[in-house]
Amino acid sequence: MPRAGLTPDRLVAAAADLADEAGFERVTLSALARRFGVKDASLYSHVRNLQDLRTRIALLAGGEMIDRIAAAVEGREPGRDTLGAFAGAYRAYALEHPGRYAATQIPVDQSLVTDSPAMRRTADVTYGMLRAYGLEEPDLTDAVRLLRSAFHGYCALESTGAFGAPRDVQASWDRAIDALHVLLLNWPGEGTTTDV
């Protein structure tokens, strides 16, 4: 019998909070059971295993993150304005919710991604922003990967205090977004090479 008051949604929300507090890698079924004052076995009526729980955290966090990004870009001018709002919302979520954000970086079964309204919305918002730069496939996918790498790398370094130079971190972020905007405006054509 499932314990009264425990639901999959409640467990996942608590696990996401635990991830933010202690770190995503420290989320275990035992730690979650302790939080609710129950035995580990009580959780198996709601989640299959630890991987299932972590996947659910990833999907929850992905939905929260794209909601924040979509709200930030709504009504913005295409181009630098939208890119800046998108990037700012991404960074704010990553820094405010480190455990949830870490969950968004794990591999998730593609069938779950396809079935997730939040993941489809992520693709719609992200690709929509980049189409305003005149990009089409395969450049769209390449640009998504570039932006994700840039945003993730910056947030990962910032979160650990790795930027030690006296230059203001926000100022560097703003310049990085300016540079990405210029790059997207001047995206190289397929097969373009640059002599150095």
Automatic annotation (TrEMBL):
Residue ranges occupied by any HTH tetR-type domain in the UniProt entry: 5-65
Coiled coil: none
SUPFAM superfamilies in the record: Homeodomain-like, Tetracyclin repressor-like, C-terminal domain
Pfam families: TetR_C_33, TetR_N
Sorted UniProt keywords: DNA-binding, Transcription, Transcription regulation
Residue ranges of DNA binding: 28-47
Keyword DNA-binding among record annotations: yes
Name of protein: Transcriptional regulator
Organism (species): Streptomyces djakartensis
